[in-house]
Structure formats: C-alpha cells, structure tokens
C-alpha cells in the first residue's frame, strides 16, 4: 500500500467512516492509541535467520493482521515489538519510544503495550479479579479499590464480570483467554499485540474471543494480530500482511489481499487455508 493510500485510509477511520475496523465517532476518543514503525528488522536464532529485513508500520488506531505459514517469523516479529526478543539489527518505534535504542526505558514503553499470547498465562491460585488487579496494583501503584473498579469494567467489556470470583481452572479456555484480554486492558494500553490468541481454543469458544477483539477494534485500539482466522482478518483488519520465510511478501487492504492476492506465494497459502480439501 502506498503512503498516500495509508494516510487516506486512516483519515477515513478517524472520521468514523464505514468499513472494516472503522472507528465509531462516539468511542474514538475514549482511549488513546499509538502507532508502530519497523525498519530493517533482522533476527536470527543461531544459524536460522527468522526475520530478514522487515519494513512495516501500524498507524494509531489501525488494525493489522499478520498471516502466513508457521515458521514465517510472525510471532518473532510481534515479540520484537515488545522487546521480549532482542533484534539483531533494525529499528522499532512504539509511539514516542524507540524500542531498539540501547537506553530505552522498557518499563515505560511496555506500559503502553498489552500482549495476549496463545496460552493464557493466568495465575492458577488467584481469582479472575485478582489476576486482573495484581499488575495495576504493583506496577501502576493503584489502590485496591481503583484496580478492582478498572478490572471489573474490563471484565464487563469481555462479558465475564459475573465470573470475577472464579479461579482459572473453573473457566473454559475461551473464557480464560477473554480474562487474559481484560487483564491486558487494565493497564490501559495504547497498543495491543495478539499472538494467535485462538490457536489453543476449542472451536466452539473461538467466536467469543474474536468478538471481544472486534469490540476493541471498533473502539479505536491499535492492534497487531498474528492469526490464522481469515474471516476475522477480512472483517476486522484494515490491512493484512502476508509473511513468508522472514519476509513481507505482500500487504494490502484486508478484503483485497484475501480476496484477490497478487503474489503467487500468497495465492498458494490462501488457497490451502481457505480450501484445505482442494475444492
């Protein structure tokens, strides 16, 4: 996508125009958002070069889905944005923070970022409410009352306020993942990273998690999502980026890229994903 196309698309989002991921005017200002810029990103594990010079950006309030086969570098890219992995070369800027600068305040930067993993990573000995308040109390120094009020509000957002007193083992996988989303939101992030959040779920629970993510997108949250859910990507994402063997092969508006990919490798991948029986 050209720079002008990208600017035009995001101006449309901020104006509340219709379309995938469009920002509703009444909630667009409810939460601040931040963007991401990645330039020349390289990452290797031993002799395996996983990222081979990635250039991409996510505008504030934009939803970008990363798709591609396992091993293409999508999750590593996401982890580099949050500096859970240290890049070998290149730069990453998250809002006002240059994430790859040697003197970056990682704690301050990470307070702007919420991340949801494949696994839920909830504390099994704590209740849902306690899972959602422990970090705001310890990191943001919120009072118990303030942290609980915010946690209950976010649990309500994902439809689980009524289960606040339950333990994780009393919840389904989909419910646990929605708690993980609520937990991330209690830190009031400006950017959300999702690393295949539905891959470990029973098919019957996937829809509830995707609905929670869709609600975030509609509220103007900046989102970078690694996913194999093509329906979600087509409906919710502003752009889709197809990666293969550590490179960005193709990117564009979600409906266009999924419906009419231009690169042979993208065409082959989507044919296998969308028509696994060769129909």
TrEMBL record:
Record localization: Cell membrane
Low complexity bias: start-end ranges: 1-11
InterPro entries xref list: AAA+_ATPase, ABC_ATPase_HisP-typ, ABC_transporter-like_ATP-bd, ABC_transporter-like_CS, MetN_ABC_transporter-like, P-loop_NTPase
Main location: membrane
GO molecular function: ATP binding
Protein family membership: Belongs to the ABC transporter superfamily.
Residues covered by region (Disordered): 1-23
Keywords, in A-Z order: Amino-acid transport, ATP-binding, Cell membrane, Membrane, Nucleotide-binding, Transport
PANTHER family: AMINO ACID IMPORT ATP-BINDING PROTEIN, GLUTAMATE_ASPARTATE IMPORT ATP-BINDING PROTEIN GLTL
Pfam families: ABC_tran
Protein name: Polar amino acid transport system ATP-binding protein
Location of the ABC transporter domain: 36-270
PROSITE patterns: ABC_TRANSPORTER_1, ABC_TRANSPORTER_2
Coiled-coil residue spans: none
Bilayer topology term: Peripheral membrane protein
């Amino acid at each position: 996508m050209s720079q002008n196309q990208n600017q035009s698309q995001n101006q449309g989002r901020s104006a509340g125009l219709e379309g995938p991921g469009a920002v509703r005017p009444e909630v667009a200002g409810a939460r601040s958002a931040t963007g991401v810029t990645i330039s020349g990103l390289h990452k290797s594990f031993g002799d395996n070069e996983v990222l081979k010079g990635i250039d991409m950006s996510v505008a504030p309030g934009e939803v970008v889905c990363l798709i591609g086969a396992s091993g293409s570098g999508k999750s590593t890219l996401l982890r580099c944005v949050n500096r859970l992995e240290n890049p070998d070369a290149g730069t990453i800027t998250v809002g006002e923070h240059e994430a790859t600068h040697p003197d970056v305040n990682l704690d301050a930067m990470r307070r702007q970022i919420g991340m949801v993993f494949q696994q839920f990573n909830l504390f099994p000995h704590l209740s849902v409410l306690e899972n959602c308040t422990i970090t705001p109390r310890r990191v943001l120094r919120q009072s118990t009352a303030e942290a609980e009020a915010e946690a209950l509000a976010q649990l309500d957002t994902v439809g689980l306020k009524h289960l606040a007193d339950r333990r994780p083992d009393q919840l389904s996988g989909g419910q646990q993942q929605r708690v993980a989303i609520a937990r991330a939101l209690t830190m009031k992030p400006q950017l959300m990273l999702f690393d295949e959040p539905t891959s470990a779920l029973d098919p019957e629970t996937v829809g509830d998690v995707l609905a929670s993510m869709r609600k975030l997108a509609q509220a103007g949250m900046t989102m970078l999502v690694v996913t194999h859910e093509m329906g979600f990507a087509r409906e919710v994402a502003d752009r889709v980026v197809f990666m293969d063997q550590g490179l960005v092969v193709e990117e564009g508006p979600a409906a266009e890229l999924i419906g009419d990919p231009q690169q042979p490798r993208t065409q082959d991948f989507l044919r296998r994903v969308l028509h696994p029986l060769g129909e």
